[in-house]
Design brief:
The protein has a single domain, classed as Chitinase A, domain 3, CATH 3.10.50. It is 37% helix and 23% strand. The protein contains 5 helices and 7 strands; from the N terminus they run H-H-H-E-E-E-E-E-H-E-E-H. Strands 1, 2, 3, 4, 5, 6 and 7 form a 7-stranded antiparallel β-sheet that branches. Strand 1 and strand 2 form a beta hairpin. It starts with a helix and ends with a helix.
Length: 191
Protein backbone atom coordinates (compact mmCIF):
# COMPACT_ATOMS: atom_id res chain seq x y z
CA UNK A 1 0.00 0.00 0.00
CA UNK A 2 3.01 2.30 0.34
CA UNK A 3 3.49 2.25 -3.44
CA UNK A 4 -0.21 3.00 -3.82
CA UNK A 5 0.06 6.03 -1.50
CA UNK A 6 3.17 7.29 -3.28
CA UNK A 7 1.55 6.95 -6.69
CA UNK A 8 -1.59 8.64 -5.37
CA UNK A 9 0.49 11.56 -4.07
CA UNK A 10 1.89 11.89 -7.60
CA UNK A 11 -1.57 12.19 -9.12
CA UNK A 12 -2.14 8.60 -10.15
CA UNK A 13 -5.36 7.36 -8.60
CA UNK A 14 -6.01 3.65 -8.48
CA UNK A 15 -9.15 1.76 -7.70
CA UNK A 16 -8.26 0.14 -4.34
CA UNK A 17 -10.53 -2.83 -4.97
CA UNK A 18 -8.96 -3.47 -8.38
CA UNK A 19 -5.48 -2.99 -6.89
CA UNK A 20 -6.13 -5.54 -4.14
CA UNK A 21 -7.88 -7.89 -6.57
CA UNK A 22 -4.77 -7.81 -8.76
CA UNK A 23 -2.57 -8.73 -5.81
CA UNK A 24 -4.95 -11.53 -4.82
CA UNK A 25 -5.10 -12.83 -8.41
CA UNK A 26 -1.31 -12.83 -8.64
CA UNK A 27 -0.96 -14.72 -5.35
CA UNK A 28 -3.57 -17.27 -6.41
CA UNK A 29 -2.06 -17.63 -9.89
CA UNK A 30 -5.11 -16.23 -11.72
CA UNK A 31 -3.30 -13.69 -13.86
CA UNK A 32 -5.78 -12.03 -16.23
CA UNK A 33 -3.29 -10.17 -18.43
CA UNK A 34 -0.75 -11.67 -20.76
CA UNK A 35 2.89 -10.92 -19.92
CA UNK A 36 2.98 -8.45 -22.83
CA UNK A 37 -0.18 -6.65 -21.66
CA UNK A 38 1.13 -6.55 -18.09
CA UNK A 39 4.50 -5.20 -19.25
CA UNK A 40 2.81 -2.52 -21.38
CA UNK A 41 0.54 -1.49 -18.48
CA UNK A 42 3.49 -1.26 -16.07
CA UNK A 43 5.52 0.85 -18.50
CA UNK A 44 2.56 3.22 -18.98
CA UNK A 45 2.05 3.45 -15.22
CA UNK A 46 5.75 4.08 -14.53
CA UNK A 47 5.82 6.72 -17.27
CA UNK A 48 2.82 8.54 -15.79
CA UNK A 49 4.34 8.46 -12.30
CA UNK A 50 7.71 9.75 -13.61
CA UNK A 51 5.97 12.57 -15.50
CA UNK A 52 4.01 13.57 -12.38
CA UNK A 53 7.14 13.33 -10.21
CA UNK A 54 8.99 15.66 -12.59
CA UNK A 55 6.07 18.12 -12.54
CA UNK A 56 6.05 18.06 -8.71
CA UNK A 57 9.81 18.68 -8.61
CA UNK A 58 9.45 21.69 -10.92
CA UNK A 59 6.56 22.99 -8.81
CA UNK A 60 8.65 22.62 -5.64
CA UNK A 61 11.65 24.33 -7.26
CA UNK A 62 9.50 27.32 -8.20
CA UNK A 63 7.98 27.43 -4.71
CA UNK A 64 11.47 27.40 -3.17
CA UNK A 65 12.70 30.13 -5.52
CA UNK A 66 9.78 32.41 -4.61
CA UNK A 67 9.97 31.61 -0.90
CA UNK A 68 13.74 32.10 -0.68
CA UNK A 69 13.54 35.45 -2.51
CA UNK A 70 11.26 36.74 0.26
CA UNK A 71 12.98 34.85 3.09
CA UNK A 72 16.45 36.21 2.21
CA UNK A 73 15.16 39.79 2.58
CA UNK A 74 14.14 39.23 6.20
CA UNK A 75 16.28 40.77 8.91
CA UNK A 76 18.78 38.34 10.42
CA UNK A 77 18.71 35.69 7.68
CA UNK A 78 22.15 34.20 7.14
CA UNK A 79 23.69 31.41 5.06
CA UNK A 80 25.55 28.42 6.43
CA UNK A 81 28.47 26.76 4.64
CA UNK A 82 26.49 23.49 4.48
CA UNK A 83 24.11 25.14 2.02
CA UNK A 84 21.09 26.16 4.07
CA UNK A 85 19.87 29.57 5.21
CA UNK A 86 18.82 30.32 8.75
CA UNK A 87 17.50 32.88 11.15
CA UNK A 88 18.08 32.78 14.89
CA UNK A 89 14.75 33.40 16.60
CA UNK A 90 16.29 33.38 20.07
CA UNK A 91 19.99 32.82 20.77
CA UNK A 92 19.49 31.35 24.24
CA UNK A 93 21.85 31.58 27.19
CA UNK A 94 24.69 29.33 28.24
CA UNK A 95 27.27 27.87 25.93
CA UNK A 96 26.88 24.29 24.73
CA UNK A 97 29.85 21.94 24.92
CA UNK A 98 30.38 19.09 22.48
CA UNK A 99 30.18 16.63 25.39
CA UNK A 100 26.80 17.90 26.68
CA UNK A 101 23.55 16.02 26.19
CA UNK A 102 21.24 18.23 24.13
CA UNK A 103 17.46 17.90 24.11
CA UNK A 104 15.80 19.35 21.02
CA UNK A 105 12.27 19.86 19.77
CA UNK A 106 11.81 20.14 16.01
CA UNK A 107 8.98 21.30 13.77
CA UNK A 108 9.30 20.25 10.14
CA UNK A 109 7.23 22.03 7.48
CA UNK A 110 6.97 22.40 3.74
CA UNK A 111 7.50 25.90 2.38
CA UNK A 112 3.75 26.25 1.77
CA UNK A 113 3.22 25.94 5.54
CA UNK A 114 2.11 22.30 5.58
CA UNK A 115 3.38 20.75 8.81
CA UNK A 116 5.11 17.41 8.24
CA UNK A 117 5.85 16.74 11.91
CA UNK A 118 5.83 18.74 15.12
CA UNK A 119 7.52 17.30 18.20
CA UNK A 120 5.95 20.00 20.41
CA UNK A 121 2.44 18.90 19.43
CA UNK A 122 3.44 15.28 20.04
CA UNK A 123 4.93 16.27 23.41
CA UNK A 124 8.26 14.72 22.39
CA UNK A 125 11.90 15.71 22.41
CA UNK A 126 15.10 14.05 21.31
CA UNK A 127 18.15 13.94 23.58
CA UNK A 128 21.58 13.07 22.22
CA UNK A 129 25.16 14.28 22.51
CA UNK A 130 25.96 16.82 19.79
CA UNK A 131 27.87 14.23 17.75
CA UNK A 132 24.80 11.95 17.78
CA UNK A 133 22.79 14.35 15.62
CA UNK A 134 22.99 14.40 11.82
CA UNK A 135 25.52 16.95 10.47
CA UNK A 136 22.72 19.33 9.43
CA UNK A 137 21.31 19.46 12.96
CA UNK A 138 24.81 19.65 14.50
CA UNK A 139 25.40 22.72 12.37
CA UNK A 140 22.08 24.34 13.35
CA UNK A 141 22.64 23.60 17.05
CA UNK A 142 26.13 25.14 16.83
CA UNK A 143 24.51 28.53 16.11
CA UNK A 144 22.60 28.44 19.42
CA UNK A 145 23.00 28.41 23.17
CA UNK A 146 20.82 26.63 25.73
CA UNK A 147 17.08 27.22 25.13
CA UNK A 148 17.81 28.92 21.80
CA UNK A 149 15.63 28.57 18.71
CA UNK A 150 16.52 28.65 15.03
CA UNK A 151 14.51 28.43 11.82
CA UNK A 152 16.37 27.08 8.81
CA UNK A 153 15.47 26.41 5.21
CA UNK A 154 17.02 23.29 3.76
CA UNK A 155 17.30 22.54 0.04
CA UNK A 156 16.13 19.11 -1.14
CA UNK A 157 19.66 17.73 -1.42
CA UNK A 158 20.09 18.21 2.35
CA UNK A 159 16.62 16.88 3.18
CA UNK A 160 14.58 14.25 1.31
CA UNK A 161 16.15 14.74 -2.13
CA UNK A 162 14.48 14.36 -5.48
CA UNK A 163 12.35 11.45 -4.27
CA UNK A 164 10.71 13.22 -1.34
CA UNK A 165 8.99 11.15 1.32
CA UNK A 166 5.57 10.21 0.03
CA UNK A 167 2.95 11.11 0.75
CA UNK A 168 4.00 13.84 3.23
CA UNK A 169 6.97 15.38 1.39
CA UNK A 170 6.73 15.95 -2.38
CA UNK A 171 9.69 15.17 -4.66
CA UNK A 172 12.29 17.94 -4.67
CA UNK A 173 10.80 19.78 -1.69
CA UNK A 174 12.81 22.22 0.39
CA UNK A 175 12.08 21.90 4.10
CA UNK A 176 11.69 24.50 6.84
CA UNK A 177 12.85 23.34 10.25
CA UNK A 178 12.30 25.19 13.49
CA UNK A 179 14.63 23.70 16.08
CA UNK A 180 14.46 24.64 19.75
CA UNK A 181 16.91 23.50 22.37
CA UNK A 182 14.68 22.32 25.19
CA UNK A 183 17.57 21.68 27.57
CA UNK A 184 21.27 21.02 27.83
CA UNK A 185 22.56 18.57 30.39
CA UNK A 186 26.21 19.16 31.22
CA UNK A 187 28.51 16.19 30.69
CA UNK A 188 29.43 16.16 34.39
CA UNK A 189 25.74 15.82 35.32
CA UNK A 190 25.47 12.73 33.08
CA UNK A 191 27.97 10.67 35.04
Amino acid sequence: MTIHKENQSLGQDMDKKAYLAGITDAIEGHILLSPTELHTALIASDSAVAKNRDAKKKEQAQLAKTFLANWSKQKGVMSDSLGYSYKINYLGQGKIKATDMISIVVKESLLDGTVVSDMDLQNKSLTLPLEGYPPLFQSAISHLQNHGEITFIVPPELAYGDEGYAPAVPPGASIMYTLRIADVIAATANK
